[in-house]
Amino acid sequence: MVTGGASGFGAGIGRRFRSEGANVIIADVDREAGAAMAAALGARFVAADVGDATSVAAMAEAVEALGPLDILVNNAGVTHLPAALETIAETDFDRVFRVNAKSVYLTARAFVPGMKARGAGVILNIASTAGISPRPRLSWYNASKGWMITATKAMAVELAPFGVRVNALCPVAGETPLLKSFLGEDTPEMRARFLATIPLGRFSTPEDLGNAAVFLCSDEAAMLTGVALEVDGGRCI
């Protein structure tokens, strides 16, 4: 299951898993876009607000009716517009941590018991280079992704004895619906300024994230847990 799978990195991850023959569930708060993406991929769709406990419980019930969940990808995420940290509205702060942090807690509460009981499972959290090398004026988004990286490591060390692996991907900004929010304004000048900070000279793509996700969730990565893999073209060097 990929949360926030209707577009952007989530869609790329879902598409790549389908190409490997996985049975994919797209979970998204946008019912129309989520259902359309699921139909395009030959996947299933479950509507969910991953920051709401009642909605996540209903999502878990719908998913578990289809069978045990082997791989959980916590991809859903939001940001706030670039601004001085002391000027960010409390509502924006709450929204960022509700979607980027609380959702990981809620999905863990819903799905970890089953994984522990089966002695198997993989959780992949989509963090960000912002959690490793924070950019000015995105303070609370940076902090939420740093939280996710630490949560990944904490989950990994606790769940390892139960056969459950937990890793994270840290993409740099990409061609997703959040790009304009990261840049403040999506102009050729702003893009060029940001791209100048990426040694490989391009943004992360949904395909990049999909390829990395399939690897970390596969048996080929059986010895990897607690990893925060940078998919960033060298941005964090």
Would you mind describing this structure in some detail?
- The protein has 237 residues and is an alpha/beta fold.
- It has eight helices and seven strands; from the N terminus they run E-H-E-H-E-H-E-H-E-H-E-H-H-H-E.
- The protein has helices at 8-19, 31-41, 53-64, 90-118, 139-159, 179-183, 188-195, 206-216, and strands at residues 2-3, 25-28, 44-47, 71-74, 121-126, 164-171, 228-231.
- The strands form two sheets. The protein has a four-stranded parallel sheet with strand order 4-5-6-7, sandwiched between helices. Strands 1-2-3 form a three-stranded parallel sheet, sandwiched between helices.
- Helix 4 (90-118) links the parallel strand 4 (71-74) and strand 5 (121-126).
- Helix 1 (8-19) packs across helix 8 (206-216), helix 3 runs parallel beside helix 4 (90-118) and helix 4 runs parallel beside helix 5.
- It is globular and about 50 Å long.
- The protein starts with a strand and ends in a 6-residue tail after the last strand.
Please sum up the structure shown:
The chain has helices at 8-19, 31-41, 53-64, 90-118, 139-159, 179-183, 188-195, 206-216, and strands at 2-3, 25-28, 44-47, 71-74, 121-126, 164-171, 228-231. With 237 residues, the protein is of the alpha/beta class.
Radius of gyration: 17 Å
* Beta-strand content: 5-15%
Helix content: 40-55%
Order of helices and strands: EHEHEHEHEHEHHHE
Low-pLDDT parts are none
Q: Which class best fits the helix and strand makeup?
A: alpha/beta
**Strands of the largest sheet, in order across it?**
4-5-6-7
* Beta strand count: 7
- Tell the overall outline: globular
Q: End-to-end span in angstroms? A: 31 Å
Would you tell me the overall average pLDDT? 96
- Largest beta-sheet characterization: 4 strands, parallel
Q: Helical element count?
A: 8
